[in-house]
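3.2 Worked example (two chains)
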Amino acid sequence: MTTDSQSRLLVTSGDGPRECRRAVTHILRRIQMEANKAGIRFRAELADETNDKDPSSALVTLTGAGSGTLSMSWTGTVQWTCKSPFRPHHKRQNWFIGVFAVGTATRPVPDLEASALKTETFRSGGPGGQHQNTTDSGVRITHLPTGLTATSTDERSQHRNRQVALERLKSKLFLKREEGLAREKSAQNQLHKQLERGNPLRVFKGERFTELR
């Protein structure tokens, strides 16, 4: 669900090739840039990254006044027109990415009962110095049914790190679920072909990811 204070977007390559995953990276950077300019908080949870470091999909959370408007400006198919940066002789130059609004109000997060979670603590801190954390305040939470994990070492207290890690785990579970729902929208589980047939909402060109108006 999208509200004026918080919105969620699923950005997905739809099982497209490596070029589409690179486009996901470009889109995330662009959304973050627009969010920062508008004073909107940006957070992205990535699907498992491949060896090339470009994620197949990501769940973006936008928080702050105007987040709904920004979310709507990206919802749809995004086209990236660019010669493949990975396959110099590849003829294809058009790559398509799906950006879907994610509703959370009517779809609860999968089981987050204590029995479904494994919580581990560990020593966290920087390279040293007076502010180094010397207690076991870092927290890693594993969702046993799916194997997804989330970690936090950002806060000084173990209690607060657990809260942060739990929120990150929730986002990862949303991402996993919404990826599945997006694929179910295609009768033959061919989301990427569905994206290519759609009319792009926004079009970008070249490795500098310049928007065509």
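3.2.1 Second chain
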Amino acid sequence: MRIPKYIHENATIGVLAPSLGIGSEKYLYEYLKSKEKLEELGFKIIESKNLFVVEKAQSNTPKNRAKEFMKFYLDEKIDFVWSVSGGEREIEILPYLDFEKLRKANPKWFVGFSDNTNLVHTLTTKCDVASIYAMNMLECFTQQSEESSFDLLNLLLQEKTEFSQYGDEEVKTNRKNNMKFEGRLIGGNLDILMNLIGTEYEGVKYFIKKYPDFIWYFEPFDYNICGLKRCLWQMQQLGYFEKCKGILIGKMRYSEDIMGLTLDDVIRDLDVKVPVVYNVQVGHVGDTMPFMNGGYAKIEVRNKKFKITYDLTYKK
């Protein structure tokens, strides 16, 4: 796994819109506030041409969005690339990306979540490059707290590698006792992962063959617990859980019981022999921890509190 170089305090951030641009006064205000804070911290911002465009639920055509991503990723003056927001149509850029060039390029951090799973996941599984599933740029210091915002930046600066649930949030597990396990992370937004399954952009079988010590993490965005149950069933039928070291499931937006079926039932019915942790702060609900896709992580749950530590020295 190729781990990009960590950034310096005056790093140049390339901010682009590989899915959706900034299309409302609310998001524009948040973007400008985030940009101002980052510049106060010493970062330099380079903006893409399509950053403020929303037309037919995209910032530009799939081909042009892919071209812009390639330009930013390959530009040596840009230290890391940060998606401004999520969206709905990022998956359409994948056929236009030059994965051969991305594999040969010096690895660079890409940061984003939600629809940006399309890039976070494929960079890791198809290009063997670690990426970061975390808040989009306009959420930094706006929708996310100062604590979680600095956590992401400090991970990029290699000043912090250990992260815990924020506030009094507790996780649940499929075990009665405290637990520890470790492995290389793979995952993202479950909605997008299910769209990628069966396409040439999935890359899961290659990844888990090369890195058998892996941990799944995902967050169900639009799924309720019945949808989550179907997704877990499909992934289990494909053999995706057979050799994993653990499964992490993000806090759900729609976790209400459905006709007597509870989230606890869904996890219990999964019937896997590895640890399963759910209600993890990854994704859309509340402050979220940065998850390094392709990074080697050590997970600990003690007294319903979750902690993740990245081992940046792990070479296998």
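3.3 Remarks
The mean pLDDT is 94.
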